[in-house]
């Protein structure tokens, strides 16, 4: 699902000045010095006795160091944005010393946030201090951040930094934003969030729930938002003040045709009951389905661990042995779903919906809400790179999940999403980095026409096992589904 992502320019005067200087010096460090170094090296080769050895070495080292330093300084001066997403924050490289040389920070590492110094009528003009784990303290000069960016940034802190303790001046400033920017009955934070949704999804008017909001007669409390897109959202919630659960929300817009609305609601109710009957050690259980304020909700079991997109982002593309092991486990989960009576089509198999916990792979989400929204609005909700053509036309079949699994395997191997509506070939990108056998499997999974794809998951599992047993990969990779703890 799409998610709120911010790119906040942060340009101190010194970085702008440095960038201008490095641009002006570009002919020197990018052309003149490399050319001089080349001439010196050729002179040493052609007439070694005419050039002092110490002079040659010293000059070469100085020219190389100057060029490398110039490239680094240019990159530092040019990279001057703060990136914000649901996964965390990424800061410009010139903040590395203050961040203990860790540029990327997860939200659970942000422990405190506060404003200091002078504060204006609507926006502060001093410093915004962020305290992270390991004693890292980062001050941001708010005169370098626009008012709009600051409001969105503070909203992200409130939504995703669950463990962050906000200082009194920060709380006071956020209240002033609400008072000055909200219409009657609408908080500033809600307005900001709704504006962001309108900008990204102009065809919808869906407004996600906020942290601390309660449902089911206060039995469910929203902890934080995990993701949102179109007319649905996913939250981390607490049930009965104890257990953490995942809450999936879907909304039919008020203008939807009444007949279509009823059909969509009946479909979601029917599918939620089907999913609740599933019993598999590596599928998150669907625990409940309810309707509140015309919104439909599924309560799913919470599996603690990184999703496989996060895992690949942090660890890089996987080796073929690991990919085969994971692909076989996921394929076995799909086989279980497809063998149900009636068969269960997942419709949203992507790296985002697979979680690694205790060295096992868990399927944590279903496309029921997405299908529900699509039926009500006439649109397709999902991740385009993993959606086969027949699903875009609203006709999902069992082979649609096989297509999505092929795209997921491609992502494991390359660290990149496959191209939408195209046969995926990891070998085209990696060359010798992937075997011909596994490349053929991925291409067959993601074939455009259904008749060219695997006809069922059992065929796919057979081919995966054949690849795993090939000597060029490593004999003996076989699926062993262990019992769930």
Write a structural description:
The chain is of the alpha+beta class and 485 residues long. The chain has three domains: 200 residues, no CATH class; 95 residues, Phosphorylase Kinase, domain 1 (2-Layer Sandwich); 162 residues, Transferase(Phosphotransferase) domain 1 (Transferase(Phosphotransferase), domain 1). The strands form four sheets. A six-stranded antiparallel β-sheet has the order 9-10-11-12-14-13, with helices on one face. The radius of gyration is 27 Å and the shape is flat. The relative contact order is 0.07.
Topology at a glance:
Layout: E1 6-9, H1 13-24, H2 26-46, H3 53-78, E2 81-85, E3 88-90, E4 104-106, E5 110-116, E6 127-132, E7 137-141, H4 147-160, E8 165-166, H5 168-181, H6 188-200, E9 214-215, E10 220-229, E11 232-239, E12 243-251, H7 258-276, E13 286-292, E14 295-301, H8 308-315, H9 320-338, E15 354-357, E16 360-363, H10 368-377, H11 389-392, H12 398-414, H13 426-430, H14 436-445, H15 457-469
Helix pairs in contact: 1-3, 2-3, 7-10, 9-12, 9-15, 12-14, 14-15
Based on the model shown, name its key terms.
485 residues; alpha+beta; Phosphorylase Kinase, domain 1; Transferase(Phosphotransferase), domain 1; six-stranded antiparallel beta sheet; four-stranded antiparallel beta sheet
Number of helices: 15
Largest sheet: 6 strands, antiparallel
Helix/sheet category: alpha+beta
Give the overall average pLDDT. 80
Uncertain parts: 119-123, 181-205, 373-382, 471-485
